[in-house]
Amino acid sequence: MNQHLLIIGAGFAGLWSALSAMRLLDQHGRSDVRVTLLAPQAELRIRPRFYEPDVHSMRAPLLDLFAATGVRFVQGLALSIDAEGRQVTYRDAAGSEAALGYDRLILAAGSQLFRPGVPGLAEHAFDVDQIEQAARLEQHLCALAKRPDCVARNTVVVAGGGFTGIETATELPARLRAILGHDAQVRVIVVERNSQVGASLGDGIRPAILEACRELGVEWRLGGSVAAVDADGVVLDDGQRIDSHTLIWTVGFRASDLTQQIAAPRDALGRLQVDRHLKVEGMSDLYAAGDTARAATDELGNFSVMSCQHAIALGRHAGNNAAADLIGVAPRVYSQPKYVTCLDLGAWGAVYTEGWERQQKLVGAEAKTLKTQINTLWIYPPAAERAAALAAADPAIPVA
């Protein structure tokens, strides 16, 4: 009887899970295991680039790749997971509900931006979390040129000074001048609750961020947060008001809500705790990868973060190990001791660091060249050629 491996999600973790599973099955000459990927679209959305302009182009079609490698694609949005009955209910493209059974499941449904109950946030804020929201922001920015020249039109507030907030903010001066004119008096203000710039990224990377922001004119409001927003401005928690027609929210990400349906330990971000083979703790048939998984990357106490750097390797291991589980071969231990950071800093350049302590290795134009290669080449899916695509899914390949 054929066995079934089901993967939820077509992001970095889901895509590489599918390819890695097919690779292992090919190696062992097994055609009795079906690999199905369930997702709303057969495309890899290049989420790390959504802070850039032309966001509509930042997607890579996957149907030809799936056809070449033997992965079955089912278009639909996963709604619920019945772990005991080993079944996933989903809504298909026509809006009807259907179900898929499985023998092993890989949850790679990603994460989403968390929006708290700040007054006016739902009605007036923008974000770069999903391609539709990033496209909405781009449309809004372009439409600013039709508004009367004023401080509020020319000012953008970015809520959150983490990785996404910094990349978004440092990209904005050039984007705004391209839209409003090179002589426009644009302002970009980052509101950050911590007392230091780039606090979550550490001391090693901070000097580059400070220099880039000084040169680009990006301002910081430290030790505060957004308390309210309306169409014409932002109010901070100290009562200060910033006149602005544009607030971009980048604060806080949470794992897919599907993780809450699993009776297993989760961290504060909603990620499922997995063992060294990426099997969800206490579950015999369920694996997690990417932003839904809290996985130890080494023996030093470091854990995966929500990034494509970890999602790709997690996917390669989860797919390999779920397929290995079904055909009775030894799994691979997930290990990803090398950690790097490549932070885009707009027209100023970028900064590249290595290690969890973020030791600076490249800065400025040299780091920008590397960042461009990462964003436009390295994280894209392989070509739709079976042998090469499956070879690229080897979990032994280092990502960083």
UniProtKB/TrEMBL annotation:
Residues 4-313 form the FAD/NAD(P)-binding domain. Keywords: FAD, Flavoprotein, NAD, Oxidoreductase. GO terms for molecular function: NADH dehydrogenase activity. Coiled coil: none annotated. Pfam families: Pyr_redox_2. The keyword NAD applies. Belongs to the NADH dehydrogenase family. This is NADH dehydrogenase.
